[in-house]
Amino acid sequence: MKVREAQENDATVMALIFNAYIGKSHMVVTPRRAAEFIELMQHTRVCMLVALDIFGGVIGYAYVKPYSERGGYAGAGEVSVFLWAGRTGQGAGQQLYDLLLPTTKELGYHHLTAKIWTENTGSIRFHERNGFQTVGIQHGIGLSGERRIDMTIMERV
Ligand SMILES: CC(C)(COP(=O)(O)OP(=O)(O)OC[C@H]1O[C@@H](n2cnc3c(N)ncnc32)[C@H](O)[C@@H]1OP(=O)(O)O)[C@@H](O)C(=O)NCCC(=O)NCCS
Fold it and tell me: Residue 89 domain-assigned?
């Protein structure tokens, strides 16, 4: 497995990976387009990485982006990480974070936020292992169809 910076021609697969989790692990309900990932990766304060299988195919990605465009939040970033469902539990997420987390410091982020469905205990454990702590739970803040979703807010300071 290899990790490298994302390129524009990775964006279609990244969007497919993200869209596979609609209604499962994030609150976006309309599919994201590849162009949105391209726009994000061109942002000067974004680091976007992809994990590759042995054939060079993208199996997942992770990125940090500004938490907010408001000036006072300049040192605050928000992370996101998604792998193809069949490629979890094989170390790719860890390899992505091993490279991403040191880079967040180089980009000037002193605080990272991760927002995770509370029922996604695997991702919460993954983030704990990577130095994130739970700040609290926003009970029922999300709606997935008729279902109310609790969101766990985690931080790494
Ligand atoms: C969450 C995710 C990024 C983790 O990446 P991964 O490649 O599966 O995790 P790794 O194999 O690198 O595991 C690293 C460590 O994280 C923890 N971990 C990862 N998945 C876990 C799970 N399902 N349950 C408990 N711990 C888990 C373990 O401590 C693991 O270390 P160990 O195997 O030595 O015990 C990945 O599972 C994923 O993309 N899941 C689906 C989408 C998703 O939930 N994204 C996050 C949205 S907030």
Answer: yes
Q: Ligand 1 pocket, 122 CB below 6 A?
A: yes
146 CB-side CA count, 13 A: 0
Name the 3-class secondary structure at 120: coil
93 lines ligand 1 (CB under 6 A): yes
Number of domains present in the structure of the chain: 1
- Tell whether 123 is covered by a domain: no
Kindly state whether residue 121 falls inside one of the protein's structural domains. Answer: no
Say what the pTM is: 0.97
82 lines ligand 1 (CB under 6 A): yes
Q: How far apart are CA 59 and CA 144, in angstroms?
A: 25
Q: What is the CATH number of the domain that holds 24?
A: 3.40.630.30
- Per-residue model confidence as pLDDT tens for the chain (157 residues): 899 999 999 999 999 999 999 999 999 999 999 999 999 999 999 999 999 999 999 999 999 999 999 999 999 999 999 999 999 999 999 999 999 999 999 999 999 999 999 999 999 999 999 999 999 999 999 999 999 999 999 999 9
